[in-house]
Fold these 3 entries.
Entry 1:
Amino acid sequence: MKNQVERSLDFIPHSRPTLGEEEARAVAAVIESGNIAEGEVVQRFERAFAEKLGVKHAVATSSGTAALHLVLLAMGIGPDDEVIIPSYVCTALLNAVLYVRGRPILAEIDPVTYNIDPDDVQKRITTRTKAIIVPHMFGLAADLDKLLKLDVPIIEDCAQAVGGTYRKRLLGTFADAAIFSFYATKMMATGEGGMVTSSSIELIERIRDLKTYDEKEADKVRYNYKMTDIQAAIGEVQLGRLDDFVDQRKRIADQYVNSLKSLNIKLPEENSEHIHYRFVVGLKTDCNSLIQGLTREGIGCARPVFLPIHRHLKMTGYPVTDNVWKSSLSLPIYPSLQPNEVEQIITKFINVLKCERNRQ
Ligand SMILES: *Cc1c(COP(=O)(O)O)cnc(C)c1O
């Protein structure tokens, strides 16, 4: 493995998991135990996760997408039921709704916070609306006060916000159910992996039943959406480091803000509860050539959402989302990013931005 200094001379990737000796030892212990599939380490991780959040129940899954699919199934959402999701999000949400043959109804976002716009959601509610999936985008809580008043079941999507809070209370504790992802690039990582939390034991029992098929009567379709003890062992260690991860991200975000605030670009909403899963900056123009320029300079950056869902579906009528998508770029931010690397990114960002502005 390369050390930090050698690494910093190379390309600085857009994302990087923060894993170390402790995770390696935890995995070795599982391998030595001989039980590598779902077993008692998963159970322990579920309990620790529920305790950390202060929720009654947690069920581990093979991914965040699987967690979403299971929640929709357990809520009884099926063919032609409408589920509202923002357009400005990855296609995992679209896929989960389509898995149950539901109808995805796309909503606009708030251009300042990038979160689903409660007023736009309200206009799209019909008698067929069965749920709203609410992602807390880039580590900042959605407007839960307004969303919870809409009187439609809400699924909090905390894939980008584990460890984040809203009015000082941890995300994932507000709605009927919440899902989490532990994919390699997320706030805490187990490679692949996910979690469902809820205070409803009925919902949780349905999910436990649906996620595993073996040694049961085939009286309904079931899935294989289990987490392994290998993943859970990594998860336990990462969970213990989560508060520190959040602090590190806030430190890096402060460093970015201090250096970039005079540049006349849009920076993340100033909010002490933002945990900065992504550091998103907004320009006045399309940021495509800036992304290319920075990449050539050895800085991994990207549009924070690959493509809005309405564009995948060849739909129009989402001007706020279109504007945000075109003009937004995400800079590297993760706990293992060193202050000197952040300095490098800032210097190169300012240079490339100047070149861009001169060309225009
Ligand atoms: C990553 C992500 C998911 C999906 O999680 P996977 O573990 O990759 O399946 C769902 N929602 C949001 C907002 C995400 O960022």
Entry 2:
Amino acid sequence: MISPRPLVRPLVRDLHAYVPGEQPKIAGLIKLNTNENPYPPAPRVLKRIRAAVNASLRLYPNPSAEPLRRKLAALHGCDPENVIVGNGSDELLALAVRTFVEPAPTAGRKQRTSPSRATKVQYFTPSYSLYPVLAASHGALSCPVALAPSFDLPPFAALMREGCWDFEAALSLITTPNAPSGRGYSMKQLGALCRHQRGVIVLDEAYVDFAGEHALPLALQRPNVLVARTFSKAYSLCALRVGYFVGPSDLIAALHKMRDSYNVNALGQIAAEATLDCLPYYRDNFRCVIATRNYLTQRLTALGFQVLPSQTNFILTRPPVLPAEEWLSRLREHKILVRWFNQPEVKEYLRITVGTDAEANALHQSARSILDGVAASAVPLRRRPRAR
Ligand SMILES: *Cc1c(COP(=O)(O)O)cnc(C)c1O
């Protein structure tokens, strides 16, 4: 008999896969854990998707999503050759690792004294927790660099210091605005970093529609900068998996070589094209989400939560009285799902997706009742007579 386990590559056997936020199907659950948009796609988008569900589903989709790339190029003022569409931006991030980074020499073979820059995937921590998984699954070298305690980028002089940021790393992945901190980085900081970087930089702008600034000009000016965007979060299309990169045509062409022939499904392409015809609808939604973000911040602050300023559709907050992990489970008892990360820099925080005003009110009510419960149970404790 063959034992199946040894048939798997050692690298894969030891791999810690990415842990996505839960998607439980519980009636009445308020789901604020995976940064989905609380508002549905535009009615015209749903109509176009429905109209596309017909006998033509037997045909393959456009292999390079060309009509969609043409529309995106027109939107961003570039050529279709500057755009690649992926099965979510996650697929493109993985492609970037496979396209620009050499796998490190495997254990057992002779290790070089200093790891080659060609094998390095560099990113700030905390940021998107998929990056180290992508590096590991490719056998590349993961190079985390700590953000400042305020979750801002370290000052440029600090990045330049020996042993901090590697300006020659093959690939650097920067979530901007960042997750899970919600913090936006200034174009000035990002521009300086990109100008000095010798390797490829991906600016992952998954949340940029909720921010004040975007870095697209860098992708259209610099030879080594790609900007990642997605229809998932801001455009309410998580289920259909459409994301894209904008950047120099040579880098985009290299990524095209590495992708699957039909990497973006037909309904996703149609939905994304229709979305670009309804941008005013989505811009109204962004304004609603931002207004609710401010409202939620103010309500939680009044209860003693420390809420960090956010440029995204979620907030990072340090809850009062109880540990964050305890808040996670107590809120769950109130049918409210938020996210907690067991990572040293953020384990005292909760990441809460901005939903509707009604959801913000429900969260506020539950938080207040949890705090009241703690206060009530604390009284008898204090009054309990000392043991003799
Ligand atoms: C959600 C998210 C993505 C992935 O988006 P998809 O297009 O749905 O794959 C990429 N980067 C960051 C930082 C995200 O939060």
Entry 3:
Amino acid sequence: MGCMGVVSSGTDAASCAFTSTARSDRARLLYSRLPQVGAFLDLPAMRKLLQTAPRQLVVDATRRRVTELRSRLQASERGDDEFNADQLNAALAAMPDAIAADLEVARSPSLRRVINASGVLLQTNLGRAPLSKRALERIAAVAQGYCNLEYDLASGERGERAGAVEDLILRFLRVRLGENAALEDHAALIVNNCAAAMYLALNTLAEGGEVIVSRGELVEIGGGFRIPEILDKSGATLREVGTTNRTRVADYAAAITPATRLLLRVHRSNFRMDGFTEQPSLAELVALGERAGVPVFEDQGTGCAVALEGYGIREESNWPAAIQSGAALVTASGDKLLGGPQCGLLLGRSSYIEGMRSNPFYRAFRADKLTYAALEGTLLDYLSDELSVPVIRMLSLSAEQVGQRCKRFAAAVQTPELEAEIVPTSSVVGGGTTPGATLPSYAVALRHVSISDADLSARLRTGEPPIVTRIRDGQVLLDLRTVAEVEEPIAIAAIRQSLCEPESPGPLAHSEPG
Ligand SMILES: *Cc1c(COP(=O)(O)O)cnc(C)c1O
């Protein structure tokens, strides 16, 4: 029953109807060859898989593969795809191997190391600050077994949660600020992140009262963290003063009432304001606060603990300086410019810190032992050599130093098909810090003879390990400032590998229905 006869004898419509009927008959026949999951699992190859993987994972993977074949048959029946008996047989024969590959993926970690060649030092999407060697060693040492998290080894009794790490913060402050810093009445507290630190501070010190904030600082930090909302949730009432671009000390002074609990300063860490602007210095606010008997709370945010001027970045605040200016309380993030683990630092007068420690929310926001271990390692690094903190080291590299590394790197990846040149570029700190500031840098610029820039960058991003790059003027740029030296050979191997492989869809690409 050839279609040709029908075509020669009649209309196109008849031909189509007949062809599609034949096609669906064939397809129906093929459906019957789709295996029952239970029976399929009895195949020797599948029994073997069942010995090494949880049954439910194998069942789910098998079901997905069968469903995928069914949808291909349906597509074939509709005429959208060609899927014949031979192809079905081949797919069925290959199914145990495909399922084994699926199981491999299902049992691999999804959170993976990524090589950041974007030149952006801190990206929330990429986990912000990479940890120092010492921080990693401290995590391993503390997490392997038990630890003295809340145990005083000298007395054998319950101790303050990681009290020694909080003491270390004060020691660190003392080193930064020197003899004249009056820190006798100060204490520190660690919570999960700076957002939690801020909430805890506002809730403890200002619930039921008023907090005065400049209209120029009613910001959104990112990830939906907005100052007016967090204030509202903390139970404090926001008193806005000044205007977006200009706020004076007199504006704060005029707004102070008996209900005022705090003067809040929020560091403009993720945006810049230029032109006709005015903002009192922290010291001026502190002086006002002292006259009026109202403490000043600075959300410093970036966690920067060094003078960034030394690294060529101007006008950036740091939290030791905020304490020195007399702020009664300062909050800072642990995984931005401090270069440590995600956490929030609270520093300030002991009575305030103790109030927060006994707030029930502290229990909800408290950090885990891995965080304390990593933070301690990071602070110890600052006490011996701050360049051992990766973020600080990246900041410290000159453009020439990055350029030298780019030269070696380019020579190692260059092939007749892959052109690699060195181009000047700018790194940025990012991650909600130092808005607008750039660091002169160099990048390796890749261009392939037959693979487009977008394809090449996608191949690198989906390689092992993934490499995150930037595209500029048809080239794929790798800014080595944000690539550790030990990562270079790994990145070079990953680039070579990504070019060896043909466009490969990967084991799971077909299992998406539809
Ligand atoms: C980043 C930042 C925060 C939030 O810090 P997380 O540690 O991400 O919670 C709060 N305030 C300011 C000013 C910041 O820059």
